[in-house]
Write a structure and sequence with these properties.
This protein has two domains: 115 residues, Aspartate Aminotransferase, domain 1 (Alpha-Beta Complex), CATH 3.90.1150.10; 216 residues, Aspartate Aminotransferase, domain 2. It has a seven-stranded mixed sheet with strand order 2-8-7-6-5-3-4, sandwiched between helices. A five-stranded mixed sheet has the order 1-11-12-10-9. The protein contains eleven helices and twelve strands. It is globular. It is an alpha/beta fold. The chain binds 4'-deoxy-4'-aminopyridoxal-5'-phosphate.
């Protein structure tokens, strides 16, 4: 065996959601968008394939994207850091802020990747349980080099109010609070408005969910431009390629299409949240594009397995004592199918 660092050998490694090689599968397990990206994305990618764009390196900082995001989100373009998915952004942040032997903090249950990032860095990882109603505890551990807070959270889909986010940021300062807003486009509010007055806040976003670009891999952070200047030193020079930059820019520029997709998803989310309780599920009110569903009467793993046998794939989760199904909001047709299979099983 080659001398791989012991912290890598000892770690389990992050395992992404299942991908079944079956075109008939109704895939509701990784919170992808069930609708295609904007038609403008396809035009932009086709345009990027012409001339000698592929022969040349992409813009290292993604300036065209940064200007577009700055305009649409009303933030300083110099405060935007581009990433190969928001997972890349989370990696860059961990590398930049956490020394070996340092401390990474996150609430639990939440996004499992944070633990892997800490382990790769050779850092300690400490979780803080959410309260029973998915809020932050009053006390937060001291000494963290970075705190991750997904908002809305996964798997619960719940949100922590901005006043609480601000309180947590003050509690962990001067270390950064990374507000992981992968699902914020499905919520009513988001943390961008805090950026001016909360200097240690870093907001991360993805185009994988609300912009239907999980396959293209594009995410970004918004933070103080002075912080972004430092983070640029950590990222790969060309972490986003010509095609993904073209796609991402076109996607954020088509806000009419974005609003249409969002409205459809929120309508289906409301329908699903209304119908699942009649089938015996306890559904946590969600501000994301998925629903966290539990049952008091029986374990849900057999349900997940039976759904999978019937070609409906949802996410079964059992960690930190929570046993439940995380179900992505699909199209209306996919939702009909899910509900029909559940009725038939139950
Ligand atoms: N944060 C959270 C909370 C997520 O659920 C995900 C999706 N797995 C991500 C970040 C990363 O998304 P991506 O890398 O596709 O941008």
């Amino acid at each position: 065996m080659l001398p791989i660092r012991s912290n890598i050998r000892d770690m389990a490694g992050y395992v992404p959601g299942e991908q079944l090689n079956d075109p008939d599968i109704v895939k509701l397990n990784t919170n992808e968008c069930p609708y295609p990206p904007s038609p403008r994305v396809f035009e932009a990618v086709r345009a990027a394939l012409t001339g000698d764009r592929l022969r040349k390196y992409p813009q290292p900082l993604g300036d065209t994207f940064r200007r577009a995001a700055g305009r649409v989100l009303n933030v300083d373009p110099d405060g935007v850091l581009i990433g190969n998915g928001s997972d890349d952004i989370l990696t860059i942040l961990t590398r930049a802020f956490v020394p070996e032997g340092g401390l990474v903090l996150a609430p639990t249950p939440s996004y499992i990747l944070y633990k892997s990032l800490a382990e790769i860095q050779g850092a300690r990882f400490e979780t803080v349980p959410f309260t029973a109603d998915w809020q932050l505890p009053t006390a937060w551990p001291a000494g963290g080099h970075i705190t991750f807070l997904p908002n809305p959270n996964s798997p619960s889909g719940t949100v922590v109010p901005l006043a609480e986010v601000e309180r947590l940021a003050a509690a962990v300062a001067p270390a950064p609070l990374v507000l992981d807003e992968a699902y914020a486009d499905f919520a009513d509010d988001n943390g961008l408005s805090l950026l001016g007055r909360v200097p240690n806040l870093v907001v991360t976003r993805t185009l994988s969910k609300s912009y239907a670009l999980a396959g293209i891999r594009f995410g970004f952070a918004v933070a103080d431009p002075a912080v972004v200047r430092e983070l640029v030193k950590v990222k790969d020079s060309y972490n986003c390629d010509v095609l993904s930059l073209a796609a991402a820019t076109a996607a954020v520029e088509d806000q009419d299409y974005f609003r249409e997709t969002r409205a459809k998803l929120l309508a289906t989310r409301a329908r699903l949240a209304a119908e699942l309780p009649a089938l015996g599920f306890d559904v946590t009110p969600s501000r994301a594009n998925f629903l966290w569903c539990r049952r008091a009467d029986r374990p849900v793993k057999p349900l997940y397995e039976e759904l999978k046998r019937r070609k409906v794939l949802v996410r079964y989760m059992n960690y930190a004592g929570y046993d439940g199904l995380r179900i992505t909001v699909g199209t209306e047709v996919e939702t009909d199918r899910l509900l029909a299979e559940l009725r038939s099983i139950l």
